[in-house]
Structures are given as C-alpha cells and as structure tokens.
Amino acid sequence: MYYPFLNDAPFAFATGKAVCVGRNYAAHAAELNNPIPEQPLLFIKPADAVVAMEGDISIPDGMGAVHHELEIALLIGETLSQASADEALAAIAGVGLALDLTLRDVQSGLKKKGHPWERAKAFDGACPVSRFIAAEQVSDWGDLELSLTRNGTLQQQGNSKAMLFPVADLLVAISQQFTLNPGDLVLTGTPAGVGPLEAGDQLTATLQDWLSVSCQVVARPSSATQGGQ
Asked: Which of 72, 152, 160, 174 is the most exposed place for a label (fewest CB within 10 A)?
C-alpha cells in the first residue's frame, strides 16, 4: 500500500487505481505510428503498480524493452462521478509526475494477437510517482511544462497545452466511465521522445520549477514470459 506525498506530508488516503490516458499528445501517437484517438483512450494500472519515483526504480529483466513515458499526474482528493468540468478541477488535490513504464515488446506482441495488454502496462512497479504539489499552486492547467533527462541527455519535453484532451475534459470523460476516489491517480498522457531504459540509467524528471525528481534504474529478475498466451 503506497501513500503519496502531498506538500511533503503523506496524503490522507492510500493510492488506489491509476487511470491512464493513451495517445494524448499527437507527436507521441505519431512516433509509434498510432492513429489519433477521437475520444480519450483509457486504461488502468492497479494500486500495486504505484511506487515512489525517488531513489531506485526497478524494471523487469528478460522481458524485452522497457520504455519510459513521463506524464503529468493528478492526485484525486474527492469522489468524482458524472462530474462537470468545475467539479472535476475542484477535486484535484495535487499535481506531480509519473512514469508509465511500458514493456514495449510485450505490448507489441499482445496487440498483434488482439489480446489485452495489461501485462505490458500494469505489472508491479509500472507506475513510479513523484511527490505532489497542491493543486492551488496551478494557475493554468493548460500551460504546465514537463521534461525527462536520461544520463544527462534530454529525452522528453512537453507542455500540457499540446494535450489533445485537456485536464478538465479528461476528468469529465473519465468520471463518465469510472468513479474516481480520493487517492486515485490520473496520468494524462506522454509527450514524444519515449524510449528504452537500461539498468544503471540516471533519470531526472521536472515539472515547471516546482519539482525535480532524480532516480536510478535497476533491473529485477523476472520469470514471466512475454505474454504470448
């Protein structure tokens, strides 16, 4: 059970599910040769996928490429169901960063077979998250800058103004499908520049001038197969 940190103090609620949004930046969809979605593309990571981004983050060994996908993460503070835009924004307790770790080879193999691809996205540790900054600090949800460097080289850089579905619209759409509860997370999509991680990589992720989080990638043995069932 993971308790996120809001303004350097444990949040009152443990992390629940993480609702993730795929292909929310056109440039990222293009780099993977994916079509632009007509509505938010949603999938869920379970609570056990959520871990702290600080320190070491582990990736499964022997399961092919593990890609980094840096995203703006929202910490939900109030129950949302069938919400309006104003209700949705008011329910955000904090904003931070998350890595949507993706077993890319596993995902590609599952997609080719028409199988679900939770194995590639929802494994234990697949959602490292930073601490969160209080939502009151955000004056414009449509102008948030995020970036990721790997071993000192810029890998990803984006701004929420490039989102196909902005924050309020995402939360409204999600709340039509899934009830969001306090402690749940919403990952809002990744900008272009995703790529493979290797054990020993040093990562630094930033959000505005509010957050700067550094971590090292370590490998963990895995006996799982590549999801070819």
From this structure: 152
Domains of the chain with CATH codes: 5-220 (3.90.850.10)
Interval 63-92: pLDDT, tens: 999 999 999 999 999 999 999 999 999 999
**What pLDDT, on a 0 to 100 scale, did the predictor assign at position 59?**
97
Query: Helices in 5-136 by DSSP H: which ranges?
Result: 26-31, 85-90, 104-112, 118-121
* Whole-angstrom distance, CA of residue 159 vs CA of residue 191: 8
Q: What is the pTM of this model?
A: 0.94
C-beta of residue 106 within 8 angstroms of C-beta of residue 131:
no
For 183-202, what is each residue's pLDDT tens digit? 999 999 999 999 999 999 99
**E-only strand ranges, the chain:** 5-6, 9-10, 18-22, 41-45, 50-52, 55-60, 66-68, 70-76, 92-99, 102-103, 127-129, 133-134, 145-150, 153-159, 185-187, 195-196, 202-207, 211-220
Query: Considering the chain, what percentage of its residues have pLDDT values greater than 70?
Result: 97
Residue 143 burial (CB < 10 Å; 0-12/13-18/19+)? Answer: exposed
